[in-house]
Structures are given as C-alpha cells and as structure tokens.
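Quick one:
INPUT:
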C-alpha cells in the first residue's frame, strides 16, 4: 500500500498459513505526516525467514496438522459443529464463555438455583441474569427437550435450567438477597456520620472559633463594604491562608491558631477533636443516600411481590418460598432502621442549614462539610508550622543569650588583665592614663576608701589616739596607694 504523498509502498506479505489477527486501529495513509515516525519506519528491514516461520508456527489461527506417520490410519474427522436452533450466535457464545468459567454440571446448577444455595456466589448469579436469553427464547428451547442431544452446549444448558419456573425473576430476587445486607452496611454508617456531624457543628468550641473569625473580619474590614458583617459563608474558612502578614512570615490561619492556643485555649482548642465526623460526612451525598434508600425499598417490594408466585412449589427441591420469606422478614426489619435514621438525617441537615443560613438549593450540605473539613486540615497544618516557628525562635534566642554571656565574660576577663598587668613590658601608658583618670575622679576607690577609713578609726580607738581623721588625702596619694596594692595582689 502506498502512503499518500509520501512515495512509500508497504510490502505485502503472504503467510503460508492463516494467521491470528492483531486488533489495532490502522492509521489512514493520508494522516501520516512526512516528518512523523511512521513515515520513516523501515520495519521490513527487520524481517527474516526464521522470524516469519516462527510467527507462522506460534500464531497460526489453527494449529497445523501433524503429518501421519507411515502405517498410521487416516486422521479422525473433525467434530461436527451443531447448528443453533433458537439462540443467535452472539448469545450462544456469551453463554459458552460463562459456562466455561463456572465449570458446573447443568443439573447441579439447576438444583442450586431451586434450593437458593449459598454456594451460588453473587458474581455467578449476576452473570446468569446478564446472559440468560429472554423468556420467549427460553420457552422455545424447552420444547426441544426431546431432541436434547442434537442441540449445542449453550442451548442444552438453557433446556435444563429453563425447566425452573420464573427463572429470570428468581435470579433477580436471589441477587437482591445476596447484596442487600452489604448495601445496608454501606449506607447506614454514612447516614450516622451526617447526623453526628450536624450535631458536632453546634459544639461550643467550634461556634466560639467562628465568632473569633467574624471578629477578625469585622475589625480588618473596617471602612470597607464588608464591615459590620453579621456572618459569612462557610467557604470563607478555606481562604484564611490567603491573607498574609505584613512581613509575609505568617498568614491569618497562623494568627488564628496562635490566638486560640494562647488566649482562648479553654473555650476553643478542642474544636478539631469535637468535629470528629465532619470528614466522613463530607464524602456523603444526600442525593446518593436517598437513591440508595429508595433502591432498598424497591428491592424488598420486588421480592415480596415475587413470593406471591411461589406459594405452591412444583419441584420438591424448590425452597425459594421458604428462603426468601425469611429474607424479607430480616430485610424489612433492617429497612425500618434505615428509614428512621434517614428521616433523622434529613431533619438534622435542614436544622444545621437553617442554623448557619445555608441555602441547600444552592449549596448541598456535603459542600459545607467539605469546607469545614478543609478549614480543620489547614488549622492543623498552621499549628504544626507555628510550633516549628516557635522552636526556631526559642533556639535563636538561646544562641543570642549564649553569645551575650560569652561577650560579657570576655569583656570582664579583658578588664581584669588590664588592671593586673601593669608591670608588663610594653606601652601601658594608655591603660595607666585611663586608670589615673578614674582614680583622680574618685570613682575607682570610693568603696575601698570608706572601708579603709573605718579600719583606721577602729585601730586608733584601740590605741587611744584621736579618732578625728583628716577629711581626705590628695587624690594622687590615694592613687599611688591603690596602685601599690594592686601590684602586691598581682
């Protein structure tokens, strides 16, 4: 075949045997761009005789017949395919595939249907419901029971199980029985989660947090069209992260978490744990629950109606009436619980929607739960980030204090060295000048002078001398004495 506009002719192969087909979607030649991979593809260069021989052997549509050895008798003739009497080819094929997966004797399967056996799994019953021929074809096939051996496998199966009265209706009822409890077990926890979440949204801790957010908003919106608001839509709670601080180091959610943890902990800090069912409720659609409850009601009614046709079993193995009567009794009891709790859920949803001024026609209740769930997640993230920031700030403060202490000790040591190392070699003139200035001003020896005066007075009293002392000594003399004392101590 030649590619349009490409000047390329694809090689035509002629296998010696009929090959299995590859079900790909062939690209039209006109859609092949000149610079595409397909235009440049040279797959025929990879072909070899051994490759083609291997392909022919491995993927022939039918296994090649082996040549008979000399002396062997002629090959057995192929099994004759039985002609379909009632079923079309597609229906017969589907039934054959289903029966091949079941691997059950037809009579055994028939008995399991009659006895409503638990050995029949939900998937098996589902396949039977899906692939069994319509009632009219089943009735036609039953008429061929005297020509059973001439029928195809699929039609033989239909003749056997078609003897079961109201087969399609039985199978539908049996399918309902097998999946009913599972559906109830799925929907009840969803209903309870919504009821609990509605009750939790009225917790004092959560309401206090909402009040705090409203306070923030009215304060920050002063002078704008949003000032003095009475409330806000719940989706605003998901946007607190968008309001950044002046230095961009935090956002309003960080600020809210800090305020709750440090200033309002007693009233608000438990709100996240108080809203334990909000995340579950956010995944529950009220419309979906309503459809499920309605389907359960119809299923029970359908089985009850079918039981009216099984008051007098025709087959001694038929236990449909007994088994399904017991199922209906149990199913109705569970359905009563579902109906009561679903009514309670609808009441709670309306109550909480009115409480927060939510228009359920514009916003389904699950959207409100979703917004609150996102708010809770953001709050917890902000809490972790605040803790990390506080730890970093505390670490930085400790490092600064340690550095200050280090500098203080260094300065003290330097001062001590300067005072003591007066006799050290080198130029000490600057140090001595500073010391002399302090001594001359009297600030360096006030305490020392006072102590020395008191000691001299006590000494003079003991010796009987006059306790009157001169008012003061010349500063230079005092400085010289102090220097001498420091030298002696050094």
């Amino acid at each position: 075949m030649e590619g349009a506009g490409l000047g390329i002719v694809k090689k035509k192969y002629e296998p010696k045997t009929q090959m299995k087909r590859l079900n790909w979607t062939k690209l039209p030649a006109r859609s092949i761009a000149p610079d595409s991979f397909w235009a440049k593809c040279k797959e025929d260069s990879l072909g070899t005789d051994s490759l083609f021989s291997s392909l022919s052997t491995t993927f022939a549509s039918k296994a090649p017949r082996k040549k008979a050895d000399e002396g062997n008798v002629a090959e057995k003739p192929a099994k004759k395919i039985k002609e379909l009497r009632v079923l079309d080819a597609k229906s017969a094929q589907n039934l054959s595939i289903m029966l091949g997966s079941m691997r059950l004797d037809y009579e055994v399967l028939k008995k399991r249907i009659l006895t409503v056996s638990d050995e029949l799994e939900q998937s098996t019953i589902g396949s039977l419901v899906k692939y069994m021929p319509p009632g009219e074809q089943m009735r036609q096939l039953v008429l061929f029971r005297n020509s059973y051996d001439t029928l195809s496998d699929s039609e033989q199966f239909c003749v056997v199980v078609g003897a079961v009265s109201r087969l399609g209706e039985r199978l539908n009822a049996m399918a309902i029985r097998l999946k009913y409890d599972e559906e109830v077990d799925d929907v009840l926890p969803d209903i309870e989660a919504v009821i609990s979440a509605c009750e939790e949204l009225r917790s004092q801790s959560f309401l206090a947090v909402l009040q705090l957010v409203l306070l923030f908003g009215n304060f920050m919106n002063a002078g704008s069209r949003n000032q003095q608001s009475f409330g806000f839509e719940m989706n605003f709670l998901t946007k607190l992260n968008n309001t950044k601080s002046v230095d961009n180091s935090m956002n309003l959610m960080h600020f809210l978490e800090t305020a709750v943890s440090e200033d309002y902990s007693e009233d608000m800090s438990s709100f996240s744990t108080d809203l334990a069912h909000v995340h579950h409720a956010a995944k529950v659609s009220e419309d979906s629950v309503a459809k499920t409850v309605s389907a359960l009601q119809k299923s029970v009614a359908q089985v009850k109606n079918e039981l009216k046709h099984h008051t007098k079993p025709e087959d001694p193995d038929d236990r449909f009436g007994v088994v399904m009567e017991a199922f209906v009794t149990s199913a109705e009891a569970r359905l009563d619980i579902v109906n009561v709790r679903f009514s309670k859920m609808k009441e709670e949803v309306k109550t909480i929607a009115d409480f927060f001024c939510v228009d359920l026609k514009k916003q389904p209740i699950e959207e409100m739960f979703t917004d609150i769930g996102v708010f809770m997640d953001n709050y917890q993230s902000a809490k972790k980030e605040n803790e990390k920031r506080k730890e970093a700030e505390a670490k930085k403060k400790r490092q600064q204090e340690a550095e200050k202490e280090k500098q203080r000790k260094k300065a003290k040591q330097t001062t001590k060295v300067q005072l003591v190392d007066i006799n050290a070699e080198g130029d000490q003139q600057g140090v001595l000048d500073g010391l002399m200035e302090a001594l001359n001003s009297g600030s360096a020896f006030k305490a020392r002078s006072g102590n020395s005066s008191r000691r001299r007075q006590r000494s003079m009293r003991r010796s009987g001398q006059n306790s009157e002392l001169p008012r003061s000594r010349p500063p230079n003399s005092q400085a010289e004495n102090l220097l001498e004392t420091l030298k002696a101590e050094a």
